[in-house]
Write the structure tokens for this entry.
Amino acid sequence: MKAPLGILISGRGSNMAALIEASRAEDCPYEVVLVASNDPQAGGLAIARDAGIATFAHSHKGLPRAAFDAIIDKALRDAGVRYIALAGYMRILSDAFVQGWAGHMLNIHPSLLPLYKGLDTHGRAIAAGDAEGGCSVHLVTPELDDGEVIARARVPILPGDTPDSLAARVLIEEHRLYPAALAAYIRAHG
């Protein structure tokens, strides 16, 4: 039986779409049972619905962080979710939420962690003169982008790269890396 996976998104859902596509393989250890968002207008919600996956959306605006996280937590638990994949979810989660899903929540981040936590990762890598950027899949902990890294993909920074051009190449690697790393993690942890 496949592990029930919930995916949290805030935007277009390209990594979510890659996870859904990978889940269709017979040997994939997870099944996407819910896509949830803090933005009812997130483009990825339509993609999930078109794929036959249940969706949940609730705006975080005007709510304390803990109250909003409790709403999302209830939706995930009501759907029977066992693992969570953050896929472009642009909210910092409350400590209580993170602790409640400890060891069962992963994120993909567009840098070679521990470098460049937070935002503007590609611009910061280019400005630092780095030879490569990339992406990392990591366990989610209360500290931003600080959990154990379980997989990385490296992407060369080319002469003349802009944050957008580097981001486009890194995104291709994110779509490859995240489904594989998530599947390996779930296989190893049951």
